[in-house]
Each structure stands twice: as structure tokens, then as C-alpha cells.
TrEMBL record:
Compartment list: Membrane
Record carries keyword Membrane: yes
Keywords tagged on the record: Membrane, Signal, Transmembrane, Transmembrane helix
Family according to the record: Belongs to the EMP24/GP25L family.
GO cellular component terms listed in the entry, alphabetical order: membrane
Species per Swiss-Prot/TrEMBL record: Coprinopsis cinerea (strain Okayama-7 / 130 / ATCC MYA-4618 / FGSC 9003)
Protein's name in the database: GOLD domain-containing protein
Signal peptide range in chain numbering: 1-40
Domain GOLD residue range list: 53-144
């Protein structure tokens, strides 16, 4: 009987690691090719003698870098002021700058979890006519976290290659995802504690209500019994 020829088919143990490695590199490539997301908005800012602030709010984490780029169009007899605040109980004011013109780039680091607001006001200065039509166009970009980091400057400073720079970007994005998940976990734990505390209070109030009604019923029975005895209605 002739011996059986050996099969040249690759084993599954050598196939799956290679496939896993290929998928990993493919996922990293797709992730690195995604554009960084930034909050950009363009709007008209009306002028007034006593203007109200127009605020643009974005969610942030504690100790997170925020870079605000405001490009203000020219406008006579108008002064645009910018203020960066947050929604925390402390009402932190990170920056307050008056009379911004052209392109202005501002950077702050947050002190609390919540939302950071970029507030702008357009104030009329001097004597002008037709004040209702005065306005300035504002092009506002808000970069937060990994989007605010200048990776090109880091690459030049640390002599990083293109692949190392992309890996640094991915590291920043992953760190933000971890921070988001940690924040969601903390909120869930706080909501769970609130639900447990509320349930315990409702439970205690229910028992208090039962005891109070029972005591009131016993008192009413004893009181009526004593009353009927005084009136000789019962023995």
C-alpha cells in the first residue's frame, strides 16, 4: 500500500494569528485615516449698545485642553468681546478679552467636568446711524482634547516619523474614549446611588405610613370604646 501524501494546506493555528495581525493593522490604518472632528460654526453677531452674550457650549472633561479660534470680520464702530466660561457650580471664567479683531487664537485648560462656553458680545461704540443693521460675521472653531493638540509641532520637536505621529494621534483619541467611559461610569454609579437612596426613603416612608395608620386606628377604637362606655352604650 502506497504511503499517503502529506497535505500542503496551512493549519488553523498559523492562519488565525496572521489574520488577526492583518485585521489589527487594517483597523489602525482606518482609525488613523479618520479626520479629526472639530466644533466649527459661522454666524452673524448683531451689534447693540447693551448686547447680550451669545454662547456656544461644548462638553469637556476635567483638565482638558480647549483651543478657540475666532475669526471676526471687519466692522466700524463695533467692539467684539469674548469670554470663556464653564457650567460648573464654581462658574469658572478662564479668559476675558475685549476688542478682538481678525483671527484670534485662545487656549485654556478646563478645571471641572461639564460644559465650556465661548461667549461673544458685539458692542456699538461712538455715534452711528442705522444701528439695527450693524453686525459682524464670526467664524468660530472650538477644538477640544486630542483635536486641540498640534501633532505636527510635537513631531518636529521630538523628531517623530509619520507612523509615530499617527500612533500618537490614535493614543490621544483612545485616551479621550477612556475618559468618556470613565465619566459615564461615574455618572452611572451616581445615578445608581441616587436610585438606591430614593428607594430606601420611599420604603421607610411606606413603613412609617403603615405604623402611623395602625396607631391611629388603634387610638380611634380605644377612644370610641371609652366614649361608648361613658354613655353607657356598651358594657
Amino acid at each position: 500500500m502506497a504511503p499517503r501524501a502529506s497535505s500542503s494546506r496551512p493549519s488553523s493555528s498559523s492562519f488565525f494569528p496572521n489574520s488577526l495581525l492583518t485585521l489589527t493593522f487594517l483597523g489602525l490604518f482606518l482609525l488613523s485615516s479618520l479626520p479629526l472632528q472639530a466644533q466649527a460654526i459661522k454666524f452673524s453677531l448683531p451689534a447693540s449698545r447693551y448686547p447680550a452674550s451669545k454662547c456656544i457650549w461644548n462638553s469637556v472633561h476635567d483638565n482638558q485642553l480647549v483651543i478657540v479660534t475666532a475669526n471676526v470680520s471687519p466692522g466700524p464702530n463695533q467692539r467684539v468681546d469674548i469670554e470663556i466660561v464653564d457650567s460648573s457650580p464654581a462658574k469658572n471664567v478662564y479668559l476675558n478679552k475685549k476688542g478682538i479683531k481678525g483671527e484670534t487664537r485662545l487656549a485654556v485648560t478646563t478645571h471641572a467636568e461639564g460644559e465650556v462656553g465661548v461667549c461673544l458680545k458685539n458692542t456699538i461704540e461712538g455715534t452711528v446711524s442705522g444701528t439695527q443693521s450693524l453686525a459682524r460675521i464670526v467664524d468660530l472653531d472650538v477644538d477640544i482634547g486630542a483635536d486641540a493638540v498640534d501633532y505636527n509641532a510635537i513631531a518636529n520637536q521630538e523628531s517623530l516619523s509619520g507612523l509615530e505621529t499617527e500612533m500618537r494621534k490614535i493614543e490621544g483619541v483612545i485616551k479621550e474614549l477612556i475618559d468618556d467611559m470613565t465619566y459615564i461610569k461615574k455618572r452611572q454609579e451616581r445615578f445608581t446611588k441616587t436610585n438606591i437612596s430614593t428607594s430606601r426613603r420611599v420604603h421607610n416612608f411606606a413603613w412609617f405610613t403603615i405604623f402611623a395608620l395602625t396607631a391611629l386606628g388603634v387610638w380611634q377604637v380605644l377612644h370610641l370604646r371609652s366614649y361608648f362606655k361613658r354613655k353607657y352604650l356598651i358594657d
